[in-house]
Specification:
heterodimer; A: 189 residues; alpha/beta; six-stranded parallel sheet; two-stranded parallel ribbon; 5 helices; globular; B: 75 residues; mainly beta; three-stranded antiparallel sheet; 3 strands; 0% helix; elongated
Chain lengths: 189, 75
C-alpha cells in the first residue's frame, strides 16, 4: 500500500432507534467526507449489524465490521445523547474490536433533541475512545435541537453546518494521515 | 511465547510489521483448573498486548504476553 493511497474514514451511526434523527446527521457527514480529496468513506449503520446479546466484547466480533475497522485510518462516531449518555448498543459494537482501533483517529458528532448538541455524550465517550486506543481530535460537531436542523425528508435546513463540518473533517484527516504514518513507520521504544 | 522484541511478519503480504503500541489488558477469566477458595481470590490475569502494523499493506496484528501476577512483573 502506497503512502499516498486514499485514507479510509467510515462514519459509524451509533443508534438503532426507530425514527432516529442521527441518521440525517450521519448521512450529511458522509456526504461531506465524499467531497474530500484522497478520502474514501462509507456509512456503517449499527442497526444493520447482527448484535448478539449472549456475550460481549471481542467474543461477538463481526467479521465485516472488524474488516472495516482494520482498513480504517480514522473514524467518525455519530452519537445521539440518550439520558445524558451514549447508546448501549453503540458501546456493544465498539467493544467488539480492539487491535483494529489502536493509534487511529476518531472524531465524534454529538446529536441531541435538546439545546446542548450532545455535549455530554461526547464527553462521556472520550474515555472510552482513549481506552480503545483511538485518538480523539479536539473538534466536535454538535447537532442541537436536531429535529429542526433537517426537513422531514432529511434535507439540511442550516447551511452553517457545512463549514463547521469542514473544520472537523480537516482536523480528522490530518490526524488520520499522521497516525497512519506513525503506525507504519514509527517503532515503539 | 515469542520474545516481545521479535518482529511479526504480516500474514497478509509477508512484510515485517512495525511494533507501534503496547497496552495492558485485565481479565477476570480463570486459568484451567484454577478455582477460588474461601480464603483465596482468583488472581486477575494481566496481559500485555502488543500492536503491530504493516508498513506495506496496513494490516494490523496483535500479540499477547500473559502474566498471572498482579502486574508487578510487567514493565
Amino acid at each position: 500500500m502506497d503512502k499516498d493511497d486514499p485514507l479510509f474514514i467510515p462514519v459509524l451511526l451509533g443508534t438503532v432507534r426507530m425514527g432516529r434523527m442521527s441518521a440525517n446527521a450521519a448521512r450529511l457527514v458522509v456526504q461531506e467526507l465524499e467531497k474530500q480529496a484522497g478520502v474514501q468513506t462509507e456509512l456503517i449503520d449499527i442497526a444493520q449489524m447482527p448484535l448478539p446479546t449472549h456475550d460481549a466484547g471481542e467474543a461477538v466480533k463481526n467479521s465485516t465490521y472488524s474488516a472495516k475497522m482494520q482498513r480504517a485510518d480514522g473514524l467518525v462516531v455519530v452519537a445521539p445523547e440518550y439520558n445524558h449518555g451514549y447508546s448501549g448498543l453503540l458501546k456493544h459494537v465498539l467493544d467488539s474490536c480492539l487491535k483494529e482501533y489502536i493509534h487511529k483517529a476518531v472524531g465524534i458528532v454529538g446529536v441531541s433533541a435538546g439545546p446542548f448538541g450532545g455535549t455530554r455524550v461526547i464527553q462521556n465517550l472520550l474515555p472510552v475512545m482513549r481506552e480503545l486506543g483511538l485518538v480523539a481530535i479536539f473538534w466536535d460537531v454538535n447537532f442541537s435541537n436536531v429535529q429542526n436542523v433537517f426537513t422531514p425528508e432529511g434535507v439540511l435546513r442550516e447551511p452553517a453546518f457545512i463549514p463547521r463540518i469542514g473544520k472537523f473533517l480537516k482536523e480528522l484527516i490530518w490526524m488520520s494521515k499522521t497516525l497512519r504514518h506513525g503506525r507504519r513507520e514509527i517503532t515503539l521504544g | 511465547m515469542p520474545p516481545a522484541s521479535s518482529k511479526i511478519v504480516c500474514p497478509h503480504c509477508g512484510e515485517q510489521m512495525n511494533h507501534h503500541a503496547e497496552k495492558i489488558v485485565y481479565s477476570t477469566g480463570r486459568l484451567p483448573g484454577e478455582v477460588a477458595g474461601p480464603d483465596r481470590d482468583v488472581v486477575p490475569r494481566v496481559t500485555l498486548e502488543e500492536f503491530h502494523s504493516c508498513p506495506n499493506c496496513g494490516q494490523t496484528e496483535s500479540r499477547r504476553v500473559e502474566s498471572t501476577d498482579s502486574g508487578s512483573g510487567l514493565p
